[in-house]
Amino acid sequence: MDREASRFTILEDGKPQAISSFEEHTAPAAGPASSVAPIPKLAADVFSNYTITPEQGPVNVILIDTLNTPLQSQAYLHQQLNDFVHSIKPGTRIAIFGMSRELHLLQGFTSNPEFLKAALNAKKGTLRSSPLLDNSVSGDLGPDSTLSDLVASGGNTPAIQEEIAQVQQFEAEQQSFELQLRAQYTLDALNQLARYLSALPGRKNLIWFSGSFPIDILPDGDLGDPFAAMGDSEDEFRETVTLMARSHVAVFPVDARGLMVNANLNAENSGAKYAANSAQFTKDTSKFFDQTASEHSTMLQMADNTGGKAFLNTNGLKEAIAKAIDLGANYYTISYYPTGHKWDGNFHSISVRVNEPKLKLSYRIGYYADDPEGPPAKAIRPKDGA
Predict the structure, then answer these.
(1) DSSP 191-243
(2) pLDDT single digits (tens) 125-143
(3) Which of 165, 190, 181 is closest to 213 using CA atoms?
(4) pTM score of the predicted model
């Protein structure tokens, strides 16, 4: 093992592992345009798929998720993507996919900025209204307008309170159903993308722009039937991140909504229900922060389990793309064979250490030991922080 590899230590479930292979990957040094072979001159009726992209280095995929992203955030994302393409480094290979209820290839891998611009600004456009968002313009985190109207029109009588409870139960169950559909469509699309990318050699960087979705929808104690509006996509999520890791896809989720404020303070909220019930504002505010934290948790888990990095609470979306591409171009490939390995379906934590205290490492933090020839086993979930 070379000197560089000796700086690293790998542990699985706290036990040291022997490194079996080690490779260092760095981005090609930027040089003058003349250092890359020019595109050959062709006759007017002759076409070629020749590209000036160097063969080494990873490829990058930009995934525009319109299923989980409100329209107002899509518009800002579209602007940021165009700004990024104008400043893209020569030779950077990028493909663009769109995701609604299906996965769409908008532009295959290319290093030609003009092709990327054309894909982003096609006549059909990439802005789409999601039918599974409560508010397709601003998203799910706003106030319940139906409840506000009931409070404003009916006051605080017992009959109105009963009606409000019934409407609240209905809206919660409807939202839970829509969230579960979004989760299923999203994970199916990510699985399909992982299988497509698995055919390409080397590392792939998936930059996923989304408003995200929670993996788990917890019971709501304010409802008459708290358990009617809950859901769990943990097993499907686990299958997706495992497939991504096996396909050598590092996921870089980016919250396309950028910096957010409490949606209950939006001008569209009349505040009528808060005048009648001041405690409701506290509950709605708590719900906003809990749901945002749950959605961000999905992104963080996806990044941690594939060796990527999540970009949250930032309006610098084009900077996030540049950072993700840079991180994904400079990395090490380290492999080992687990000692005493068996397909037990349980989660096994991975820890990578390096004798440089100032360095912070990003890597796959663990895996589920599912038999690749069989269905995923029901495993014990890792505790928070494992």
Answers:
(1) HHHHHHHHTS-S-EEEEEEE----SEE---TTSSSGGGG-EE-HHHHHHHHHH
(2) 556 777 777 665 556 555 4
(3) 181
(4) 0.77
